[in-house]
Amino acid sequence: MADILKTVTAGQVDVDRLPRHIAIIMDGNGRWATRRGLPRTAGHKAGAETFRRIATYCKNLGVQYLTVYAFSTENWKRSADEVGTIMGLLKRYLQEAVATMERDNIRLHFFGDMSPIDPELQALARETDEITEHLGADAFQANVCLNYGGRDEILRAARRFAEDCAAGKCAADELDDALFSSYLDSAGIPDPELIIRPSGELRLSNFLLWQCAYSEFYYTDVLWPDFDEAELEKAIVAYQARDRRFGGVKK
Ligand code: IPE
Ligand code: IPE
Ligand code: MG
User: Fold this and answer.
1) Residues within 6 Å of ligand 2 by CB
2) Distance, C-alpha 108 to centroid of its chain
3) Is 75 tagged catalytic?
């Protein structure tokens, strides 16, 4: 076992039964800042650091996919200052990623409708997509949900399928789980076994509505900027104690 695993897992997490795909609703940045008398934007800066830490930890642990909810289709309701700060932090993260993802063997992918996103950010996302294409399919992959909504994703997929039917490329009666999944932003990526929501809110807020069908949910009151490696371990340990039946009965 790699040294890093010995130190980080402290014998609690069973590294042979890790979820292949973990998804996180990165929530609680605003409350974290407000409690410290800071502007909400300071919470987003701290939250961005937590994302870097947790992504590195997932990669080192051997989780293959980490999907994070960074900005929802509903988050445009916030002030221009707050939205601008979040987009600025994403831009900085992508600039770093362009410089380091090849060296670190990290694939990066976006879920969401990128069309209303700042062109500079879109160009950076295209650059990271190109780098990702050159990296091996078994490399760690981070999926960032940006202007993402589960309903919007399903609607965009349905529209594209209808267009393909109209163009004679496929027929309505061919549509099954697998074919529909191939039209989603998550095409080719297994569904998350574990979805984590920090900050105490007990809802999905339009996250991965199709993919969560049989995900295990883990909620904690810890705010995202305070979420750390130990908290992630707690979530994985809880996941490993679950009895996943998928509608069947235990033998
Ligand atoms: C999550 O933190 C980040 C985004 C939604 C972009 P919030 O900003 O929602 O933090 P709270 O929920 O207000 O504390
Ligand atoms: C969900 O959190 C979206 C992200 C974390 C990006 P919100 O803070 O927007 O969700 P609600 O408003 O509490 O449901
Ligand atoms: Mg929130």
Assistant:
1) 25-27, 69-72, 75, 201, 203, 205
2) 10
3) yes
